[in-house]
Amino acid sequence: MKQKKKASYDKPATIIGKETILESATLKSKSSVQVNGKFYGDMEIEASLVVGESGYIEGNVVSDFLLVAGQIQGNLNITGQLHLTKTSRVSGDIHTSSIIIDEGALIDGNCHMKHRQSLPQPENDMLEKKNK
Predict the structure, then answer these.
(1) What one-character DSSP code corresponds to residue 6?
(2) pLDDT value for 29
(3) What is the mean pLDDT of the chain?
(4) Number of separate domains in the chain
(5) Which Pfam families does its entry note (predicted)?
(6) What's the pLDDT at 120?
(7) Per-residue pLDDT, 13
(8) Among 50, 69, 52, 53, which residue's Cα sits nearest to residue 61?
(9) Which run of H or of E encompasses 85?
(10) Sorting pLDDT into bands at 50, 70 and 90, what band is 115?
(11) Under a CB-based contact definition with an 8 Å cutoff, are residues 16 and 39 in contact?
């Protein structure tokens, strides 16, 4: 049986500090990143991304796992789990396969859940039962 991939928020290899403002075209990382300051640009993180309460991102984010306690203005494409805490503010469309939304989190945009290949589709199960 295939186990669910759980969020693994590793110790970040890169930290954008609370008093730091970084303006960039794209930040790409194969290891975990934590944002406590301000980041302007897109992010492509092949591990976990944590946006602290003082963290702010203006740009699109692609990541395996994302924990948001701060603010993001941009679209999110998360292959694993997205966790929005009570202090999070997201303005943009969300694409993810798993989401946790704490009471108090704010979302201004659409949320699209990706289908998991390993899960049976309800429509297919119904068709199989009809054909039997």
Answers:
(1) -
(2) 94
(3) 85
(4) 1
(5) Bactofilin (PF04519)
(6) 40
(7) 77
(8) 50
(9) none
(10) low
(11) yes
Average pLDDT estimate for 47-71? 97
User: Could you tell me the two tokens for 97?
Assistant: 């396969």
What domain range includes position 89?
Answer: 17-111
User: Mean of the pLDDT values across residues 122-126?
Assistant: 47
Instruction: Write down how long the chain is.
Output: 132
User: Would you say residue 128 lies in a domain?
Assistant: no
Q: Taking a C-beta distance cutoff of 8 angstroms, is the pair 87, 53 a contact?
A: yes
In whole angstroms, what is the distance from residue 71 CA to residue 54 CA?
Answer: 8
pTM (2 decimals)? 0.78
Q: Given phi > 0 = left and psi -120 to 50 = alpha, else beta, which region is 117?
A: alpha
Angle at 62 between CA 58 and CA 67, to 5 degrees: 75
In the numeric block, which tokens belong to residue 26? 């794209």
Supply 16's token pair.
């954008």
Closest CA to 93 of 105, 111, 73: 111
